[in-house]
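Q&A log
Question type: sequence-to-structure
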Amino acid sequence: MTEDKIERVWNRFKDIMEYSDEDLAKFKANPRFMSMFATPSFRTHKIVFEVIQSHGCVCQHRVGQRIVLNGNAALLSEECPQQMCIGLVSQLPNIVFPIWERMVAGLDPNGVLINTIGCTDVGIDCGGWGRVVAKVYVEGPENK
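Response status: OK
Response body:
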């Protein structure tokens, strides 16, 4: 990447984050943040949570539905259901963080040991309302 392009990327990041020059300097001083920033998959890949099981979900999650995040874990609303259950969405960070670790290490982010999550509702048989389970995987530009 040319110096000019690098400067444009940093300026755009600074604008998006609404950082002051001091904030940006603090960010750049953190080697862990810099390793994330230097990893292209944070910009080019998507983290997908695909519903593989659903019963009794008040938000009507259905098998095959996808909750899609960019590599930085921002929900891509145009690729997500209109309604999303907080019991399911609240579980996303539990798997996003290990995926990020693998991305920074240059490993296949789909190699996480546990690649399924479940909503916090235990289901009708255990005293709850319903239950949703989703498989998690990462899509790169080559998967489009």
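Response note: Residues 3-37 form one domain.
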